[in-house]
């Protein structure tokens, strides 16, 4: 579905991603893990057209993705829930969800998806009229994921969905990711919480300083004590 072939991504003269290759197959949950600054968020930003790829190629559903502007990436079926809950704080929860569907015209399907999202996150349903900026951190995180889902993406990019959440909400988020996949959405997940990410994912890529360190089935990585010690903070 998604293929990155030796991509390089820079901030000015500084290379943040150096020759990364990875593949995501339809229906998978793939996680990208690694320490702070490893290049995980940068990789998601490149896929969603927020940062240019200087070398290498990205392909989505057989079409080249390099240089495609962010709104066109959404149109092609990729939605990005960015790090740090970038919701619209002065809009209500309801209005934020609507914004997620801004490129869609299929009114009936939009309201079905809205209903599905409110079932996934009952907390959002209780607070539809609340200004998003006054919601708790965890609620804003749910809203960010819900809004990305409103684009009805084929591929959902999730950047640190569990960041800053209380343990009980972390569990809710990971259960929700599993349910999102059951509903047919492929997921590329960036997480600091590596063990929880490996638990929900099928496969994992471990990044270090912008390069691929290793990759494999998530359960195998989680069981390898040396890998857990070296890369996963275990
Ligand atoms: P974290 O888990 O800490 O979010 P990450 O793996 O997502 O880390 P990135 O955010 O992709 O890491 O950052 C990769 C590198 O690029 C880091 O060295 C970071 O300092 C640098 N970087 C990120 N954003 C910018 C920016 N806007 N300008 C300059 N350098 C940046």
Automatic annotation (TrEMBL):
InterPro entries with a match to the protein in the record: AAA+_ATPase (IPR003593), ABC_branched_ATPase_LivF/BraG (IPR030660), ABC_transporter-like_ATP-bd (IPR003439), ABC_transporter-like_CS (IPR017871), BCAA_Transport_ATP-bd_LivF (IPR052156), P-loop_NTPase (IPR027417)
Organism of provenance: Streptomyces montanus
Name of the protein in its database record: ABC transporter ATP-binding protein
Domain ABC transporter: residue ranges: 2-234
Gene3D superfamilies reported in the protein's UniProt record: P-loop containing nucleotide triphosphate hydrolases
Keyword Zinc-finger: no
Family: Belongs to the ABC transporter superfamily.
CDD domains: ABC_TM1139_LivF_branched
């Amino acid at each position: 579905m998604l293929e990155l072939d030796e991509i390089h991504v820079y901030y000015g003269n500084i290379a943040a991603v150096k020759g990364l290759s990875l593949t995501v197959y339809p229906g998978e949950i793939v996680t990208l893990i690694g320490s702070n600054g490893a290049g995980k968020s940068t990789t998601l930003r490149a896929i969603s057209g927020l940062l240019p790829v200087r070398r290498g190629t990205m392909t989505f559903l057989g079409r080249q993705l390099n240089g495609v502007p962010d709104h066109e990436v959404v149109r092609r079926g990729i939605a990005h829930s960015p790090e740090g809950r970038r919701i619209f704080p002065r809009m209500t929860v309801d209005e934020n969800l609507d914004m997620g569907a801004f490129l869609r015209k299929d009114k009936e399907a939009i309201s079905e998806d809205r209903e599905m999202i409110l079932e996934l996150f009952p907390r959002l349903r209780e607070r539809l009229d609340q200004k998003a900026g006054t919601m708790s951190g965890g609620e804003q995180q749910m809203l960010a994921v819900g809004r990305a889902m409103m684009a009805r993406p084929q591929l959902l990019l999730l950047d640190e969905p569990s960041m800053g959440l209380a343990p009980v909400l972390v569990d809710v988020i990971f259960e929700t990711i599993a349910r999102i996949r059951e509903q047919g959405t492929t997921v590329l997940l960036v997480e600091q919480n590596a063990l929880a990410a490996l638990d929900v994912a099928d496969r994992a890529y471990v990044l270090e300083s912008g390069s691929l360190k290793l990759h494999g089935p998530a359960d195998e990585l989680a069981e390898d004590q040396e890998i857990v010690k070296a890369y996963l903070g275990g």
